[in-house]
Amino acid sequence: MENDEAVVIRSVDFSETSLIVTLFTRRFGKLEAIAKGGRRLKNPFESALDILTQINVTFIQKKNDTLDILTESQLIRRFRVGQSNLHGLYAAYYIAELVNLFTERNSPNPRLYDLLTEKLSVFAKTESVNYHLAQFELQLLHENGTQPVLDRCAECGKKFEIDDPRQLIHFKQSAGGIICGKCAEISRDLKQQYTLIKTETLNVLNFFEKEIIDQTKKLTNESIIETLKLLNNFINYQLGSQPKTQKFIKQFK
Asked: Are residues 141 and 100 in the same domain?
């Protein structure tokens, strides 16, 4: 028997009485477990297996690809997002899906767990959803080891310097970050795709990467939206597909 605190990041019906839940726990990482009787009105889980619920869980951990067995859960809190804040609600579902897609079973990451619970709390009450969502995406990529290269050319390794704050910067997804003008010319000749981004967008990425919180007051909403768009596309490239809930985020400006 193991015990831990967790966030329910996915829940699907398994039978008339049972559920299969995906949990992101603080000490064990992602778990996939069957909750026998979880759909019954009276069950040992306190009706606390809804998605985005934070719980204390007791489970029997199985080896290989076998589902773990959830035996008990106690509610810690529900991350309630009001219907008037649909942006925050969709953002909460989106980051739960991202954690599920970017993590492997039984790979502990306490920092990511704390980041997830922090942002779920923020989305329940803030109007600055885009800011916190972009910050979460970049930190998630950092925890996964796939964060974009921002301080040097991702292809030739040359240190990147901005000569003119109005200059446009080349960002190449297949290279994993920004590229210099010379490498951009080579990519153009080879008909390889890249994106032109504003210097301000790179500044936002650097602010989030370095967690310079006091500097974020200078950021415009437009620059945050452009940064979020870039990160969304970068995440889609890393995954090879678009997360199902991302399309709901894109309707908000």
From this structure: no
- Residue 19 belongs to domain spanning: 2-127
Query: What are the distances in angstroms from CA 16 to CA 19, 21, 70, 201?
Result: 9, 15, 17, 49
Reported in sequence order, the residue ranges of the chain that DSSP labels E, i.e. its strands, are 2-13, 19-25, 29-35, 53-60, 68-78, 168-172, 177-179, 195-198
Please name the residue that has the structure tokens 């210097």: 199
Cα–Cα dist 249/86, whole Å = 9
What are 20-37's pLDDT values in tens digits? 999 999 999 999 999 998
Task: Read off the pLDDT of residues 58-80 as tens digits, 9 standing for 90 and up.
Answer: 999 887 778 999 999 999 999 88
Residue 40 near residue 14 (C-beta atoms within 8 A): no
Q: What are phi and psi of 39, to 5 degrees?
A: -95, -5
CA-closest candidate to residue 237, choices 168, 148, 155: 148
CB 57 within 8 A of CB 4: yes
Residues 93 and 179 in one domain: no
**pTM here?**
0.91
In angstroms, rounded to a whole number, what is the distance separating the alpha carbons of residues 151 and 163? 14
Residue 220 parent element (H or E): none
3-state secondary structure of 50: coil
Please indicate, yes or no, whether residues 81 and 123 belong to a single structural domain of this protein: yes
Contact 27, 108 (CB under 8 A): yes
